[in-house]
Each structure stands twice: as structure tokens, then as C-alpha cells.
Write a structure and sequence with these properties.
- The chain starts with 17 loop residues before the first strand and ends with a strand.
- The chain is elongated, with a radius of gyration of 18 Å.
- It has a ten-stranded mixed beta sheet with strand order 2-6-3-5-4-7-1-8-9-10.
- With 142 residues, it is mainly β.
- The protein has one domain (17-141): Barwin-like endoglucanases.
- It has helices at 45-51, 90-93; strands at 18-29, 32-34, 40-44, 58-63, 69-77, 84-87, 99-108, 115-119, 125-130, 138-141.
């Protein structure tokens, strides 16, 4: 007697898609909040490159200052400008001077190592961070 055929539509660990964090800019400082803009977040091109975030990509933005959380999309700012600008309605929730975290996510079938960076008060790259679920972030390369 042979084993029963696997149902190609059954849910298994191998074919389950999960949202996981792929990119993160930690401790960024909002340099501008522009209500007059249509929407989005403007991010220094260097920080986009270091984290793998794309222009137009949906991101989650969390304010460490007031706890606000919102989703928006990325616009590229000038390279090495330090620009982190909240645009449009998001500027009501997250204001100039707020300290924020910016995260991008991806649907995957297996765990992945996210690209996580720490920036200083001028939004300049400080170092890469390693994030493993359930552990404190630690520096892995500078």
C-alpha cells in the first residue's frame, strides 16, 4: 500500500507566507513635518541603500516620542542630507524633532536576516544592528 498523495493546496510550513521585518532605520530624528505635501516619508538616499528600502515601498513608522504608528510610502531624499521628512497628513501625528523607527516588511516562506541600522541625532549611519526575535539588538558590524 502506497502513502497517500499530498494535497497541493494544504497549508504547510514550506508554503506559508509570513510578514517579517526586512529593513529598519532605528532612532531616526524627523527633520521636517510638511502638511502641505501630498503624503509619504522622505528618507536620505544613503539610508535607503543601507537598509534595502525602495522608493514607493510601504513602511511602518513608529514615533518613540509619542507612540504614534502609521503606514506610508518612501520618497528618496538627498544623499547624505540626513533628511527624514513626514509629509502630508502623517505630519499631524509625527512632528519635527520626534525620534522614530522606520520598518519595511516582506512576505517570505522562511526566516530572514533583516537589514537594521542605527543612526545618530543627525540621521547619519552609526552601525548595523542584529535583531533576533526575543533578544536585545546588538551591534554586528560598524
Amino acid at each position: 500500500m502506497s502513502a497517500p498523495e499530498a494535497d497541493p493546496h494544504s497549508i504547510t510550513e514550506e508554503n506559508t507566507l509570513r510578514w517579517v521585518m526586512r529593513s529598519k532605520i532605528h532612532n531616526a530624528t524627523v527633520t521636517e513635518a510638511n502638511l502641505a505635501y501630498v503624503g509619504s516619508i522622505t528618507i536620505d538616499a544613503d539610508l535607503l541603500e543601507r537598509t534595502g528600502l525602495w522608493v514607493g515601498e510601504k513602511v511602518l513608522v513608529v514615533s518613540n516620542t509619542n507612540g504614534a504608528r502609521l503606514e506610508t510610502y518612501v520618497i528618496e531624499g538627498g544623499r547624505h542630507s540626513g533628511a527624514i521628512c513626514m509629509n502630508g497628513a502623517a505630519a499631524h501625528l509625527i512632528k519635527e524633532g520626534h525620534q522614530i523607527i522606520i520598518m519595511g516588511f516582506e512576505l517570505v516562506t522562511s526566516p530572514m536576516q533583516p537589514q537594521v541600522i542605527l543612526v545618530d541625532e543627525n540621521n547619519r549611519f552609526v552601525r548595523h544592528l542584529s535583531e533576533v526575535a526575543g533578544t536585545e539588538a546588538a551591534a554586528i558590524r560598524g
